[in-house]
């Protein structure tokens, strides 16, 4: 006898019905005539029993999810018994094709998920990280992606994830399946947002917990046409409620997003994952201005406005309608007759002459992206005004959260640019470490370019990149080692190839302790002058010095003369002048005023005078004293600025450029001083010793002046403290100041000791600013021209003359201002900690 059967429910998930067949025969569920599943498990169907068809268990239910995965469109389901088809039923299968380009949330960098776009309030900080998922998580390819927020403030700001979706062939309703969890209970919205009005036309809510859950949202057919035509976008949205994270494992958008093919899970390890992530060269998203999602018209600028993607303009209320921005193209297009026509786009910024408060361009990136390695910041900028000249007030790094902000590093101040230039600034690993420590809990870093009054310039790119290491090449150990007769080789081939330029290897090979000289004056001239007396010997030594490459940033850059008053102390003067030759970076002239009577000193100075065209020696006919000697040097100068430098100092690499950067940071600057080991209130790390006297802060054994200067620059905040007095060991002075207040007072301070304080007091009263370049270090050996006891007497006489001349000046308050300046206090503390290690 033929059996009977019915298919009551048919879907991609389950096929159910009832079946009555001859006992002992096999019955199968077939798809398009092919046997796919044996029906041998039954349950009671009371409705069939009540109908009188059978009184036995006849109901069945079969999971067909995996069976139907290989089929699309329409199929025919049938039940076959003993070769007889008992029932047939057509089934239209909803599509399981995933429309999301990256369903497993694979990331390409800390800032980006492949084929997804993240939009959020740029000050709260958001990063992506991938982790190996638990094996119990079926909806995963082996990893899940974490979206982390570091800001602790409850900003309630909107966070949007927009997937790249292909809607072109979609006509039917859709389902979105999402597998996710969160650190705290979090509402996640599935929204369809109109592109024109930004209005929400569909909204469904999931609640995420700290356990993985599979959520499904159904998108009705009335919204499909807007998605297909590009009039609306599908978004996954949440709000920022302080520090937390959301984990995403899987997203599936299809007509049927429940009965789907799960991603293939590979055996993964941490190492295998690290190879999959694309290491983005630039830490700053869209640093090359290649994405303009918000458009390229900026007719009305808000106080905080995103121009291009991740490029923000900020300005104070007082600068409203004083700034204009336009998107421009450079002139690097290829020949139009060729197949392609390309150009580089930039942001042109124009400001009125009367900016008040702040105005700046910011490019944010998450602090977690800044590893403790060497980095290089490159800025492609071009003056677009008629003069083709731009002075950038400041390029710096700030750390932010939703409420707070602090500057953590300066790259440059008062940078002069002529024509299109790529500025480059290095950020050492130790500087990065300090920045990360200083930023503390602030999650977002911003590269900031200040906009000056009257500016007209174009920014084409801002790139912050890890500095690449040197390529590894084949070793030539044997040749390098044998050429130097060194009985050893290094494990690092790069070192072996440079053995011919490395100094001290012979001493190193002996195994004996090697002490480095405290001074860092150049190679051949270091301490080899001792015992030298004749002009020929001095000539040989002086001519062996390697002059520093001198630069004048622009033809309008101020001219600088360095005045060095000399009174005997030949060996100290030799070290001072040698360092000036080898360490001074800006174009300059050195005016040496010899006020002594020592023949050896005169012979040495003659050798310098013969060797270098930019060094001139002026010899006083008789001893005239320190103050008159300085004034004589100033009268010999025709520069815009002069540096009065003691002859017992040793300058560091690039010292003059740093002083000038400080000097040009404000039009009212009259004088700039450096930090030193022994410069009273400008001493670092300690001002006083245990006895209350001025501390000499000797360089640690094996530490050079350059190394100490690098340490100062590393820990400096470049605050350029505004003070009331600057120590006279090293003073950069504006000639406009001297024209207005006059030279040093020769009558009251004939031998020095108080003359610089007098000049500082007169400068402040005349309205000039006195700044300390807190990123600049000059070593001071302390004068040997006078003995310790005589210096005490002279200091006492100078102090009395100073009080008599300026009874209205509270010198205690003046020096207290330097002693307690927060930037200097922090710098001293940081240096003390660093040196103690």
UniProtKB/TrEMBL annotation:
GO terms for molecular function: glycosyltransferase activity; methyltransferase activity. It comes from the Bacteria. Keywords: Glycosyltransferase, Methyltransferase, Transferase. One of its GO terms (biological process) is methylation. Residues 562-672 form the Glycosyltransferase 2-like domain. It holds the Pfam family Glycos_transf_2. Belongs to the glycosyltransferase 2 family. PANTHER family: GALACTOFURANOSYLTRANSFERASE GLFT2 (PTHR43179:SF12), RHAMNOSYLTRANSFERASE WBBL (PTHR43179). This is Methyltransferase/glycosyl transferase fusion protein. It comes from Alteromonas naphthalenivorans.
């Amino acid at each position: 006898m033929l059996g009977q059967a019915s298919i009551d429910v048919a879907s991609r998930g389950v096929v159910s019905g009832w079946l009555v067949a001859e006992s002992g025969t096999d019955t199968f569920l077939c798809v398009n005539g092919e046997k796919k599943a044996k029906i041998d498990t039954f349950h009671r169907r009371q409705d069939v029993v009540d109908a009188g068809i059978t009184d036995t268990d006849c109901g069945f239910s079969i999971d067909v999810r995996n069976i139907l995965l290989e089929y699309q469109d329409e199929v025919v389901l049938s039940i076959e018994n003993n070769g007889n088809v008992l029932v047939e039923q057509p089934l239209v299968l909803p599509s399981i094709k995933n429309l999301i380009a990256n369903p497993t949330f694979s990331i390409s960098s800390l800032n980006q998920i492949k084929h997804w776009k993240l939009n959020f309030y740029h000050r709260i900080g958001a990063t992506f990280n991938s982790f190996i998922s638990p094996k119990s998580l079926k909806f995963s390819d082996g990893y899940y992606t974490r979206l982390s927020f570091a800001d602790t403030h409850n900003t309630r700001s909107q966070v949007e994830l927009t997937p790249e979706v292909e809607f072109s062939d979609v006509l039917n309703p859709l389902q979105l399946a999402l597998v996710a969890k969160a650190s705290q209970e979090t509402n996640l919205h599935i929204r369809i947002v109109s592109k024109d009005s930004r209005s929400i036309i569909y909204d469904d809510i999931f609640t995420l917990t700290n356990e993985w859950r599979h959520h499904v949202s159904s998108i009705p057919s009335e919204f499909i046409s807007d998605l297909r035509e590009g009039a609306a976008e599908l978004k996954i949205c949440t709000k920022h409620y302080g520090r937390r994270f959301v984990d995403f494992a899987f997203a599936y958008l299809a007509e049927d997003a429940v009965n789907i093919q799960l991603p293939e899970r590979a055996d993964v390890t941490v190492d295998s994952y690290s190879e999959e992530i694309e290491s983005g060269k630039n830490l700053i998203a869209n640093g090359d201005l290649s994405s303009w999602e918000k458009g390229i018209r900026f007719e009305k600028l808000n106080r905080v406005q995103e121009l291009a993607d991740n490029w923000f303009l900020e300005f104070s209320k007082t600068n409203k309608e004083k700034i204009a921005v336009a998107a421009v193209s450079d002139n690097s297009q290829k020949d139009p007759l060729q197949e392609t026509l390309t150009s580089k786009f930039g942001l042109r910024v124009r400001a009125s002459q009367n900016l008040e408060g702040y105005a700046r361009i910011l490019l944010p990136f998450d602090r977690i992206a800044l590893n403790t390695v060497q980095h290089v910041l490159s800025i492609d900028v071009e003056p677009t005004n008629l003069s083709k000249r731009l002075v950038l007030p400041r390029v710096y790094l700030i750390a932010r959260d939703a409420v707070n902000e602090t500057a953590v590093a300066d790259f440059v101040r008062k940078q002069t640019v002529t024509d299109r230039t790529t500025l480059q600034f290095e950020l050492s690993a130790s500087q990065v470490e300090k920045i990360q420590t200083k930023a503390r809990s602030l999650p977002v870093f911003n590269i900031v370019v200040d906009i000056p009054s009257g500016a007209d310039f174009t920014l084409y790119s801002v790139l912050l990149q890890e500095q690449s290491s040197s390529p590894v090449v084949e070793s030539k150990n044997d040749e390098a080692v044998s050429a130097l007769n060194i009985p050893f080789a290094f494990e690092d081939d790069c070192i072996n190839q440079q053995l011919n330029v490395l100094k001290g290897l012979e001493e190193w090979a002996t195994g004996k302790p090697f002490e480095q000289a405290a001074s860092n004056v150049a190679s051949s001239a270091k301490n080899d002058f001792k015992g030298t007396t004749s002009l020929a010997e001095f000539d040989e030594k002086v001519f062996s010095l390697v002059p520093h490459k001198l630069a004048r940033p622009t033809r309008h850059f101020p001219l600088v003369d360095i005045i060095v008053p000399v009174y005997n102390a030949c060996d100290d003067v030799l070290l001072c002048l040698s360092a000036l030759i080898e360490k001074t970076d800006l174009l300059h002239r050195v005016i040496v005023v010899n006020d002594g009577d020592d023949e050896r000193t005169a012979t040495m100075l003659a050798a310098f005078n013969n060797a270098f065209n930019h060094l001139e020696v002026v010899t006083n006919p008789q001893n005239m004293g320190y103050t008159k000697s300085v004034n004589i040097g100033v009268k010999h100068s025709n520069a815009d600025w002069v540096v009065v430098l003691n002859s017992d100092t040793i300058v560091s690499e690039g010292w003059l450029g740093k002083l000038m950067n400080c000097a040009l940071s404000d039009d009212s600057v009259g004088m700039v001083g450096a930090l030193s080991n022994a410069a009273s209130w400008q001493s670092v790390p300690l001002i006083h010793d245990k006895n209350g006297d001025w501390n000499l802060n000797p360089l640690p054994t094996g530490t050079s002046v350059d190394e100490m200067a690098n340490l100062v620059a590393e820990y400096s905040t470049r605050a350029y403290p505004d003070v009331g007095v600057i120590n006279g060991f090293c003073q950069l002075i504006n000639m406009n100041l001297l024209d207005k207040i006059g030279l040093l007072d020769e009558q009251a301070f004939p031998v020095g000791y108080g003359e610089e304080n007098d000049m500082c007091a007169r400068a402040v009263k005349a309205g000039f600013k006195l700044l300390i370049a807190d990123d600049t270090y000059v070593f001071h050996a302390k004068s040997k021209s006078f003995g310790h006891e005589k210096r005490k007497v002279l200091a006492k006489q100078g102090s009395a003359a100073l009080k008599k001349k300026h009874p209205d000046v509270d010198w205690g308050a003046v020096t207290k201002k330097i002693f307690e300046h927060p930037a200097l206090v922090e710098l001293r503390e940081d240096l003390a900690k660093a040196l103690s290690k």
